Amino acid sequence: MITGIIVGAGHRGIAYASYAEQHPDEFKIVGIADPWEQRRNQVAQRFGIPPERRYESADALAAAPKFADIAINATMDALHVPTTLPLLAAGYDVLLEKPFAVNENELRQLVQATRTFKRKVVICHLLRYIPFYVAIREKILEGAIGDILNIQTIEHVSYHHIAVAYLRGKWRSKKIGGSSMLMAKCCHDLDLIAWLKSGIAPTAVSSFGSNFQFSPEKAPKGSGKRCMVDCQIEADCLYSARKHYIDHPDRWAFYAWESLEHLENPGIEDKIRSLKTDNPYGKCVWKCDHDVVDHQSVIIEFEDGSTASHNMIGGTAKPSRAIHLIGTRGEIQGSLDENKFILRGIDPRPGKEYTETVIDLNLDRDAAGSNDGHAGGDMRLVADFLHVINGEPYSICTTHLEDSINGHIIGFYADKAMEQQCVLAIPKID
Asked: What pTM value is reported for the model?
């Protein structure tokens, strides 16, 4: 039995902690640290945490005598390092939400602290645990496509996702959330690229992107400051708050109705009233104080001469992730949404050109995904972390802190390259 503490009782922290409810013989939540008293007490009641184990901050928790094995740190991006450092000093191993740092200095600081205190820190790069990516990684390790020459990944962020998180929400500005959109949304994808390159270091990066669609000067004629108050085109607008959060009341409920958590069962009138008054999710998407990009392309070079690219496009009709790897003996191409990929091999025989095998993970019950978050990746991540804490060897998926460095450093330097419109060398982190 491993005991844990939730630090930051938001959506992700609760999702990971729910493993304890599904596997009570393996994991138990015994403490909570969150500055919001109401949410702190709600979570404490859910997991049976006594009053003396409820803390207002990570510092207050770390100052108390150690009473659990691990901490799940799911605070906002800018708080990840400041809240993890005291936990490491207090002797806790940490499951840390991504991105684990918001700049290179923080990255170096956390890596050094982990080494100094000899603690285990695993980063929540849960895409590594989804069967689709695990199967691709296994094919690479088998040598199915030879040495990787190029990796191409894409992420399409749907119109309703970019609106709730990056236009109206907590990640709309680095000043608020701490991270750029690339790092907040796509550090998973950059981690996948670094992971599939088997630890071969990135050496250079360039990047381009902008806020193409949602700058204030592109606001449609007749739009207001609040969709349900003074907008003349709300009935026809694709980004109407009514359409996103009233017509779809459960899709982004954890974010959209945060301001109503003090009500036990908020009704439709309560929700409409909040969108009309102080709820940030009721604002026009063109007139929020966001400063993040809505699309960005990244090009990477590795020390072995191979290359990779990642394209993030926000505001798409359908969310999707896809990948195409080209090696010296063949290629892998697939879509996460379809949960299958094609394995192609070079075939120079007479009358042939290439072989092609479809790997359909939907046919495998264990690999077909689940109703848990991120196609089962959330719970597989927590299970793997608990195995690590129990002293078992790292799996091929485990994102221990030092294995997450390359993906993060790519992102930090990609953003710098985009701002400076140049190619930047990427330093090695020793």
From this structure: 0.94
